Amino acid sequence: MEYNRILLKLSGESLMGDKQYGIDEVRLNQYAEQIHEVAQMGIQIAIVIGGGNIFRGLSGTSKGFDRVKGDQMGMLATVINSIALSSALTNVGQRNRLYTAIRMEPVGELYSKWKAIESMEKGEVAIISGGTGNPFFTTDTASALRGIEIEADAMLKGTRVDGVYTADPEKDPNATKFQTISFDEVYKRGLKVMDLTATTMCKENNLPIVVFNMDIYGNLKRLMQGENIGTVVK
Ligand code: UDP
């Protein structure tokens, strides 16, 4: 097996499916089934979900929200998404445990590296919500942080594109995809794989990033079986 322990990052927006806002239950269930399949292969999985489908702190400032309060709303949005995923995982028969960066029992347990690892070693999927618990960060950075903390073999960024391209493939028909690319090349080309804070954390702590299309059913499993379906940044 290519990976024993992974950190899977899902954006909040991906949970919307074809909707304009909130959570699409069909998409959510597809994710839950895919995650369950991979967990059954014995792979240890931790998950960080964004909150962009509900609220982003920065966009709140234009509506008059204080940035820190807006970011707190954003972090709570990631908890809402995580509760939804926890419920969907339970529905497909996948044991899981919800952790929160900020204390809010009984919604979830306060996160610690050791509790999350213990969960994964017992066969539970660890959903790590609430971002980093601090404003001015993103869930990309939270996934980098948690991935490094739990000693994941890679951070998998599930998106709606199948990897990292020379240009935005949704805008430029001549864009070509990288199989692998170095962190230095990502900086040099100004590619937006993740935000710079997250990218730098992964680079400095040797955590490879795998960008792949999570919306194609079965891709997560294919990736785990070693199929070359995304882009590896290392
Ligand atoms: N957020 C934060 N600190 C963190 C992670 C997230 O303040 O450590 C807030 C921030 O306002 C962000 C929102 O939560 O806009 C939702 O996260 P993000 O934008 O990363 O979600 P995604 O784009 O992945 O859906």
From TrEMBL:
<comment type="similarity">
    <text>Belongs to the UMP kinase family.</text>
</comment>
<feature type="binding site">
    <location>
        <position position="168"/>
    </location>
    <ligand>
        <name>ATP</name>
    </ligand>
</feature>
<dbReference type="InterPro" id="IPR011817">
    <property type="entry name" value="Uridylate_kinase"/>
</dbReference>
<comment type="function">
    <text>Catalyzes the reversible phosphorylation of UMP to UDP.</text>
</comment>
<keyword id="KW-0808">Transferase</keyword>
<keyword id="KW-0547">Nucleotide-binding</keyword>
<feature type="binding site">
    <location>
        <position position="159"/>
    </location>
    <ligand>
        <name>ATP</name>
    </ligand>
</feature>
<dbReference type="GO" id="GO:0005737">
    <property type="term" value="C:cytoplasm"/>
</dbReference>
<feature type="binding site">
    <location>
        <begin position="9"/>
        <end position="12"/>
    </location>
    <ligand>
        <name>ATP</name>
    </ligand>
</feature>
<feature type="binding site">
    <location>
        <position position="52"/>
    </location>
    <ligand>
        <name>ATP</name>
    </ligand>
</feature>
<dbReference type="GO" id="GO:0005524">
    <property type="term" value="F:ATP binding"/>
</dbReference>
<feature type="binding site">
    <location>
        <begin position="132"/>
        <end position="139"/>
    </location>
    <ligand>
        <name>UMP</name>
    </ligand>
</feature>
<feature type="binding site">
    <location>
        <position position="71"/>
    </location>
    <ligand>
        <name>UMP</name>
    </ligand>
</feature>
<dbReference type="GO" id="GO:0033862">
    <property type="term" value="F:UMP kinase activity"/>
</dbReference>
<feature type="binding site">
    <location>
        <position position="165"/>
    </location>
    <ligand>
        <name>ATP</name>
    </ligand>
</feature>
<dbReference type="GO" id="GO:0044210">
    <property type="term" value="P:'de novo' CTP biosynthetic process"/>
</dbReference>
<comment type="pathway">
    <text>Pyrimidine metabolism; CTP biosynthesis via de novo pathway; UDP from UMP (UMPK route): step 1/1.</text>
</comment>
<dbReference type="Pfam" id="PF00696">
    <property type="entry name" value="AA_kinase"/>
</dbReference>
<comment type="subunit">
    <text>Homohexamer.</text>
</comment>
<dbReference type="GO" id="GO:0006225">
    <property type="term" value="P:UDP biosynthetic process"/>
</dbReference>
<feature type="binding site">
    <location>
        <position position="56"/>
    </location>
    <ligand>
        <name>ATP</name>
    </ligand>
</feature>
<keyword id="KW-0418">Kinase</keyword>
<dbReference type="InterPro" id="IPR036393">
    <property type="entry name" value="AceGlu_kinase-like_sf"/>
</dbReference>
<feature type="binding site">
    <location>
        <position position="51"/>
    </location>
    <ligand>
        <name>UMP</name>
    </ligand>
</feature>
<keyword id="KW-0067">ATP-binding</keyword>
<dbReference type="InterPro" id="IPR015963">
    <property type="entry name" value="Uridylate_kinase_bac"/>
</dbReference>
<protein>
    <recommendedName>
        <fullName>Uridylate kinase</fullName>
        <ecNumber>2.7.4.22</ecNumber>
    </recommendedName>
</protein>
<feature type="domain" description="Aspartate/glutamate/uridylate kinase">
    <location>
        <begin position="4"/>
        <end position="213"/>
    </location>
</feature>
<keyword id="KW-0963">Cytoplasm</keyword>
<dbReference type="InterPro" id="IPR001048">
    <property type="entry name" value="Asp/Glu/Uridylate_kinase"/>
</dbReference>
<keyword id="KW-0665">Pyrimidine biosynthesis</keyword>
